[in-house]
Amino acid sequence: MKKTALITGATSGLGYEFVKLLSKDGFDLVLVARNQQKLEEIKQTFSNIQVTVIAKDLSIAGAAKEVFREMEDKQIDIDILVNNAGFGLMGKFDELDIHKQTEMIQLNITALTELTYYFLPGFKRKNHGRILNVASTAAFQPGPLMAVYYATKAFVLSFSEALVEELNGSGVTVTTLCPGATKTNFASIANVEGTKMFSNAMSSDIVAQKGYEAMMSGKRVVITGGLNKAGAYSAKFLPRSLAAKIAKYVAREK
Ligand SMILES: NC(=O)c1ccc[n+]([C@@H]2O[C@H](COP(=O)([O-])OP(=O)(O)OC[C@H]3O[C@@H](n4cnc5c(N)ncnc54)[C@H](OP(=O)(O)O)[C@@H]3O)[C@@H](O)[C@H]2O)c1
To answer: Is ligand 1 within 6 A of the CB of residue 33?
Structure first.
């Protein structure tokens, strides 16, 4: 029987790479993002699989439930959930717009948590399901100048790793992808293009491939790139105050 994957943030960057990888393996797809036209354009590129598009702003309260209800109404059974949509913002916490920052929390944390909550019972009933949550190397330390973004990704990692234990033996796997700087629209939206942290950004197809393989093999956490791995592991052993200072340093202009 055909299996279906739902991908949030499917219209660009890592999300679009996941779309390509999943379609190559024959999955039917449900694509979620805000831009209806882009979603339709992507849908038109596929003829061999069923593609459903949902134009939805997941930073609006209740949007995740609406996505789930739409799947119920259309009787689309989801087997893979890719919680990928997210964004960051650079700047001092008190100087950034509070509404944009709470929108970020709503998208990066609340929508991801709610979608997991709504789809998980179905996965457990089938004794099968895969969840890929996109965090970041930002998850491993505090991030001055991107304080809220780093904190949202720490939530994603902690939440996902806790679920791995709760779901042990259930047939449902949860994988957290922790990319470092990656060439997508993220940097221009977050206003971090000229920073040290983006001087060696990885390409999105390589990052997505690593995440996809990890999800398919049920791996717990994947950090992409040797330098990013080294950074994430060393952050575990450094005093948090020093790790925060390093994060502030790489957030500076090149
Ligand atoms: N690129 C990096 O350096 C990097 C590093 C670590 C982690 N990440 C994480 O990777 C994930 C994917 O980001 P990306 O780098 O691929 O960025 P991207 O190219 O900007 O893609 C973001 C995707 O999310 C969608 N999106 C944004 N806001 C949304 C909303 N409110 N509701 C629904 N969909 C929304 C966008 O489509 P619409 O605009 O049409 O809604 C787009 O499809 C994010 O969680 C990000 O935090 C990225």
So the answer is: yes
